[in-house]
Amino acid sequence: MKQPAKSACPCGSELPYTECCGPLHDGAAAPDAAALMRSRYCAYVLAIELYLLSTWHPSTRPTQIDPDGALAPQWLGLQVRRHVTTGAASAIVEFVARYRVGGRAQRLHEISHFVQQAGRWYYVDGEFPALTSKSSAAKSPAGKSPTSIRAKPPAKGGND
User: Fold this and answer.
1) What is the CA radius of gyration of the chain?
2) pLDDT score, position 2
3) Looking at domain 17-152, which of 3.10.450.50, 3.40.50.450, 3.40.190.10, 3.40.50.2300 is its CATH number?
4) Which parts of 25-69 are beta strand (E)?
5) End-to-end Cα separation, the chain, in angstroms
6) In whole angstroms, how far apart are CA 9 and each of 24, 103, 110?
């Protein structure tokens, strides 16, 4: 599902989609890890599977995902809490994403790890710190980050 050109971007920046995450979804490089995080959240809202996979680091990327499957959350909002450069080509982004599944509103709190290679940022993985709010969940409905919801693990090699 593509976002209408003049609509506000789903990432919450208050900019039009065409001036915010739209260019990244069309192939432009994210200027930093926070911009990539916002664009990945937006890609989940809009169910842009190819973008989600292409911005996932190959070392942790699943073979496929289903961002709009039967149990897909309804994304309600994103709050980026902090963005910290941790090295010449690495960063973390801490965020809280609000969503609804089966009529129940929840929150996902994640500290995501990103790396930059050949001028492009990639999502690697995330940690799930406990939230202080009693009504908040520390994990998504699938027990995974919004960047990995409904991810199918890569095929295992060797003789299992």
Assistant:
1) 15
2) 59
3) 3.10.450.50
4) 64-65
5) 38
6) 12, 24, 21
Single-letter residue type at 31: P
Residue 42 is encoded by which pair of tokens? 């937006």
What percent of the chain has pLDDT above 90?
Answer: 69
**DSSP assignment letter at 59:** T
Does residue 125 register a pLDDT over 60?
yes
> Confidence class of residue 40 from pLDDT cuts 50, 70 and 90?
very high
**Closest residue by Cα to residue 91 from 37, 33, 145, 147:** 33
Separation CA 44–CA 51 (nearest Å): 9
Q: Indicate the pTM of the whole model.
A: 0.80
Residues 144 and 138: their CA atoms lie apart, in Å, by 10
